[in-house]
Amino acid sequence: MMSQSVSNEFLDAFAEAWSRHDADAIVAMMTPDCVMCLSAGPTAEGSRHEGRDAVKAAAEALFERFPDARWTNPRHFVAGDRGVSEWLFVATTREGQRVQTNGCDVFTFRDGLIAVKDSYRKNVS
Questions:
Q1: Which residues contact 81 (CB under 8 A, 6 or more apart)?
Q2: Bridge partners of residue 72, in order along the sequence
Q3: Do residues 66 and 93 make contact, with C-beta atoms less than 8 angstroms apart?
Q4: Would you say 84 and 103 are in contact if contact means Cβ atoms under 8 Å apart?
Q5: Parallel/antiparallel/unpaired status of strands 30-43 and 46-50
Q6: Angle at 105 between CA 18 and CA 58, to 5 degrees
Q7: Which of 75, 63, 81, 82 is nearest to 102 (CA)?
Q8: Do residues 104 and 119 make contact, with C-beta atoms less than 8 angstroms apart?
Q9: What are the sequence ranges of the domains in the chain?
Q10: Which of 114, 82, 94, 98 is nearest to 18 (CA)?
Q11: Among 49, 68, 83, 123, who pairs with 58 as Cys (CB 3.0-4.6 Å)?
Q12: Which residues of 47-72 are buried (b: 16+ CB within 10 A; e: fewer)?
């Protein structure tokens, strides 16, 4: 049972932390044993990162790869201990390749924090 509920405003703040590349704020909004699965990776679930230290390192690596990354136009809904954020990812790689694609995060919440963040995005070819 959740002791606190997560709001759309909480998810707005989480999206803003991503867009300002604030890894400390990101992990502060997640449980100590959090799990983050990014869209790209070697398995069907993408790449899996467990615990705040691993999530922080993965976020920082993503910011390094996409120095101007922004998650824009976030839209959220929360239903009990689950939620979804839809967004438009806009970035440029270090090599100059422009990326713009729709995506979403599927969340599981616990104690007013994000326990699981599972990301999905369109593959633009």
A1: 2, 108, 109, 110
A2: 88
A3: yes
A4: no
A5: antiparallel
A6: 50
A7: 75
A8: yes
A9: 8-121
A10: 114
A11: 49
A12: bebebbeebbebbeebbeebeebbbe
CB 13 within 8 A of CB 24: no
Going by C-alpha positions, the residue among 121, 52, 49, 53 that lies closest to residue 91 is 121
Are the beta carbons of 72 and 19 closer than 8 angstroms? yes
Rg, the chain, Cα only: 14
pLDDT digits (tens, 9 = 90+) for 5-62: 899 999 999 999 999 999 999 999 999 999 999 998 888 889 999 999 999 999 999 9
Residue 2: DSSP 8-state: -
For residue 99, what is the enclosing H or E element? strand 98-110
Q: Are strands 82-92 and 98-110 parallel, antiparallel or unpaired?
A: antiparallel
- Residue 124 is given by DSSP the state -
Q: How far is CA 78 from CA 23, 66, 82, 100, in A?
A: 23, 28, 6, 25
The answer as to CATH 3.10.450.50 being correct for domain 8-121 is: yes
Enumerate residues 6+ apart whose C-beta is below 8 A from 80.
2
Distance CA(52)–CA(20), nearest Å, equals: 18
